[in-house]
Amino acid sequence: MTSRHPEKMHAIILVGFMGAGKSTVGRALAQRLGWMFEDLDDRIEQRERQKITEIFGNAGEAEFRRAEHEALKELLKGIRSGSEKVIAFGGGAFVQQSNISLLDAANLPTIFLDASVEELLARCQRQSETQGMERPLLRTPEDFRQLYEKRRPYYLQARFRQETDGKEVQEIVTSVVQALGLPDRRGTR
Length: 189
Ligand code: S3P
Fold this sequence. Notes:
Elements: E1 11-15, H1 22-33, E2 36-39, H2 40-48, H3 52-59, H4 61-77, E3 85-88, H5 97-106, E4 110-114, H6 117-131, H7 141-155, E5 160-163, H8 169-180
Parallel strand pairs: 1-3, 1-4, 2-3, 4-5
Helix pairs in contact: 1-8, 2-4, 3-4, 4-5
Bound molecules: shikimate-3-phosphate.
């Protein structure tokens, strides 16, 4: 980003654990930038014609990871020709080496939305109670903490880390826009 001829940024990828706010922040960030928003999980569901929970239930996690990788490949293929996009990954997408390799080749900025594991767990439990949101990998609190510890080193490989504990969505969006050096369109629409 410091080069004299910076390449145009076609997409921003938000990564992080379940409950990190990837979709909520992603939508707000896209709106601020005047970009499109896409949730990788939505593309998987459309391609497979099944809900994420059904893919896990009918075919297991390995099949879900295959579908996730294929959906990411398709998404990245269209990135340079289409309009700019903010993309929210599912919590496990940035942990698969095959996906990391695809992203390295695409050279897109990745943002890790960070939060304490207790906050993440509380958010997921709240979403499950109030919105009926189903997450196949949200099992016991102990499993949740263990998975978080295992994945955190991967998330830390993202280009930027953004703290989210105790922050409002718009505050997070402002920090991300500034970190990326993008023009802030706040108040212009
Ligand atoms: C997953 C997280 C989910 C979804 C799938 C697997 C994971 O997305 O992709 O259930 O492995 O952590 P969210 O992070 O949006 O909940």
